[in-house]
Amino acid sequence: MAGTAFSTSCLSSSSNLGTCWLVLKTHNARVVPGKLLPGNGRRRMALIKAEVKYVNAEKAKELVEADGYTVLDVRDKNQFERAHIKSCSHVPLFVENKDNDPGTIIKRQLHNNFSGLFYGLPFTKPNPEFVQSVKSQFPPESKLLVVCQEGLRSAAAASKLEAAGFENIACITSGLQTVKPGTFDSVGSTELENAGKAGLVTI
């Protein structure tokens, strides 16, 4: 990736198997799986440490328009439908929790009486299919700009994808709430920066 410095070391080798394990290190010490590479009758496994880029809205636009990044929106369905970047992909990090066990019912009622009523936030749970859904749409070498409304979910999603082997991930610092109208072509009933506003607080 651009702007990433590497150092190389050989962890182990075997004359019988002809195998050398290499580690390519970046400053943030994160590891993602590499690929088996043939060479001189030997097989080498490169483990590449990936780095998530955190950028502002203008730099994010540049990544999409000039560097070929695809926008991956990880917000819930409600915020996504209010406003989203045109031609983006949508895989929510959290999905609506419709479980009906007694504990969940109580928590959902408490949520709906406060966060749901005042802020229009749905009662959600982690999407168990998140990583697999992204993998089904994008290969690990894809350039992904992961976005959410405030930057927290996108950071969590980026961490999951990085651990799953994705090598080129960027996030907008503080999320779509910092994106000024006109920065991206958008679809929806409001501006990207206002998509998180709902419920009684908007009255």
TrEMBL record:
Transmembrane segments: none annotated. SUPFAM superfamilies: Rhodanese/Cell cycle control phosphatase (SSF52821). This is Rhodanese domain-containing protein. PROSITE patterns: RHODANESE_3 (PS50206). SMART domains: RHOD. Residues 65-188 form the Rhodanese domain.
